[in-house]
Design goal:
By secondary structure, the chain is an alpha+beta fold. It is 56% helix and 17% strand. The chain contains four helices and six strands. The strands form two sheets. It has a four-stranded antiparallel beta sheet. A two-stranded antiparallel sheet has the order 1-2. The longest helix is centred in the last third of the chain and has 26 residues. The radius of gyration is 18 Å and the shape is globular. The chain starts with a strand and ends with a helix.
């Protein structure tokens, strides 16, 4: 039986943690590669709208609070730990049949852990995917951020289209 009655955990739901592990590994290895190959702020044009650019982000998304003086490292680290714990418990409480939501949460967890590692080890997050249109640059991001964004989009799809269908059944 995959459910433990005393906790409400569905241990079989945690099989989706392989997605989290893949995200963390890909994020780690791409960040190691870019750090080894590029000097800080070095940029290489890949496409007319896309560069690889090594940047360090001491803030949150879109460099929010990047120049706050250092306290934000531990603030965002704490948030990542709490959110990661909540997501793990949430995943364990979902039914194994909730595959879409489990994959979404696994992606978000992988991204959170990838960026958490950077904050703990370096004090900043390594970003390198840099899109732009002419001279207008979108803030650089990384694979962890991409996984978080895809997971968040999947959660929105679940909330708008899949969850109402499940509750109607």
């Amino acid at each position: 039986m995959s459910q433990t009655p005393s906790t409400g955990f569905h241990w079989a739901s945690l099989k989706w943690l392989w997605v989290t592990i893949v995200v963390v590994a890909l994020d780690y290895f791409t960040k190691q590669w870019i750090t080894a190959e590029f000097a800080y702020a070095e940029s290489k044009v890949i496409l007319p709208i896309f560069n690889l650019t090594l940047l360090h982000n001491t803030g949150a998304a879109f460099s929010f609070l990047a120049n706050a003086g250092g306290w934000q490292r531990w603030f965002f680290t704490g948030i990542a730990v709490v959110v990661s714990t909540v997501i793990f418990v949430w995943m364990a409480k979902l039914k194994p049949q909730d595959r879409w939501l489990l994959v979404a949460l696994s992606l978000i967890l992988g991204g959170a852990l990838g960026n958490l590692y950077d904050r703990l080890v370096y004090g900043y997050v390594i970003d390198f995917l840099h899109f732009h249109w002419e001279e207008h640059f979108f803030p650089a991001f990384n694979l962890a951020d991409t996984a978080i964004s895809i997971g968040a989009f999947m959660m929105i799809v679940d909330a708008l289209f899949l969850a109402p269908k499940k509750s109607a059944e």
